[in-house]
Amino acid sequence: MKPLPHNLPSPHVRGVGPRGFPLRLQATEVRINPVEFNPDFVARMIPKVEWAALLEAADTLHLVEVPKGPIEGYEHDEKFLRQMHHVLLEVDVLEGTLQCPESGRLFPISRGIPNMLLSDEETET
Amino acid sequence: MDHEAAQLEKQHVHDVYESTAPYFGDLQSKAWPRVRQFLQEQKPGSLIADIGCGTGKYLKVNSQVYALGCDYCGPLVEIARSRGCEVMVCDNLHLPFRDQGLDAIISIGVIHHFSTKQRRIRAIKEMARVLVPGGQLMIYVWAMEQKNRHFEKQDVLVPWNRALCSRLLSDPSQPGRKPCAHPERSHPYHPPCSVCSCSVCFKEQGHSQRSHSMDYEPLTAGTCCADISKEGEEENGFSNMLGKSFRSWFFSRSLDESTLRKQIERVRPLKNTEGWANSTVSIQPSRHSSLDLGRHQEPLSTREQSLDEDVFVEASQKQLEWPRAPAARKHLRGDQQGEVRRNGDGNFLEGANTSENSMNENDAEEGHPSASKTLRRISALDSTDSNSEETIPVEEQQPGILDSRAFMRYYHVFREGELYGLLKEHVAELHVLSSGNDHGNWCVIAEKKDNCD
Hints:
The structure holds 2 protein chains of 2 kinds.
Chain A: H1 3-7, E1 24-32, H2 39-45, H3 51-60, H4 78-90, E2 91-99, E3 106-110, E4 113-114, H5 120-123
Antiparallel strand pairs in A: 1-2, 2-3, 3-4
Chain B: H1 2-20, H2 33-40, E1 47-51, E2 66-71, H3 74-82, E3 86-89, E4 102-108, H4 117-129, E5 131-142, E6 155-160, H5 162-169, H6 194-204, H7 221-230, H8 237-253, H9 257-274, H10 288-291, E7 311-314, H11 318-321, H12 326-336, H13 371-374, E8 375-378, H14 385-388, H15 391-396, E9 407-412, H16 418-426, E10 430-438, E11 441-448
Parallel strand pairs in B: 1-2, 1-4, 2-3, 4-5
Antiparallel strand pairs in B: 5-11, 6-9, 7-8, 10-11
Helix pairs in contact in B: 5-6, 6-9, 7-8, 7-9, 8-9
């Protein structure tokens, strides 16, 4: 699971947490996969990044050289884009968890796949 | 009710996909062209989700977008992952995304697996929730109206008869068969042979006459079986069963249509040698009018009209009874397609509240009394259900023909306008941009309105 998708998940469990609250990422196994650099693609991803969540994940994953936020003119800043490319697309969490900060509920990441299924009780409305 | 619906879906959607997932490993099915087009039209850099992605066949269509695949079925998701896709396991009804996080969503052959109208609406609303304003949603669902088959009801259980597949397709004399993706299972006639082989065989038997052009009419796999009957041959219950199983695969997994046809044609000699074809069954030339929604041919008496959960059961005796009821055969052919047996483990939506299910009100049915011998209708609420249970042991006496252990997948097939109506009436946050029919599916493209939740 790559950090960009991690940006997106929120538990969306009724009564358990507010919507849109980013999950906390913990990783026990991470792999770095080289991915071809496409600056346009990365540039377009930037507006979609939730920086707080990303930085937290980067910290957890001990990633270095992660920009702290979009910089002026980032679309043409190759260094910036390459750094973002690395953190968004080349880092892959193979084993770990995503945790709802409100409820503490853990979602497993296994073989690179997060399992976001809720239990019956959690889904009861 | 919702619990029962969830249980039905667990048994006849999730568990089936989970069990049959291993056979998808080799499946390289084609993407529907219009879906591909929709994906390719998305702006570069878009965040797209395929909700119900299966093995991820749409996730790599457009390399300029960031595509996420989601599916309830872990094993299928694993296959997608092994192809390098970014995927997660989740529930369409509880998408793990924040509001307005995604630029586009596709839902191809998913909503029809929800067993109540309410759940279908919820699934659509959930996808709308996570869309940005202006973001688009494409939905494909199986159509009730099919050119070469006839669904009697909107709520159907479609079998995947894996024993059929394995016995038919594992014939070593078949040329050009690629090794099964699971070599340890290559022993013929062992159950996990199946769709893996099917798909592989399908792939290879590219039929040059058939194109994937959408102008080719009809393009549904139902055509394949209709073609068989057109060729005047052994259109009997068995080949229908086979055709049905494959058709069901075709619709749900978008198997290559041309190879499917080829596969069906290949099956014919096999079935004769296997002796499955009942040689005493005389073959009537097909009357396609009977397949084309000929209401006058509809079997089954009106006695159960009031019960909406009826699902047709193919009595195993039909093989034997065909010669006796030639009139019935026509609509047997027409009607049994798509509707099939129960697997004997419970009523279809037992205890279901009829008012909540959007199962269709019965059309006026003019029954042919003779048909009632050959086709048994099982009603979820019918006290005679216990009688229908008796068909199951009989079925098991004919192994390979009617495999009562066949995986049965639940579908709610949509009538024309139903999907559109669903959105229009119940999902105010979406504005329908276009709708139509594609390869036997009703499809809709809708856009998330601004200033909505």
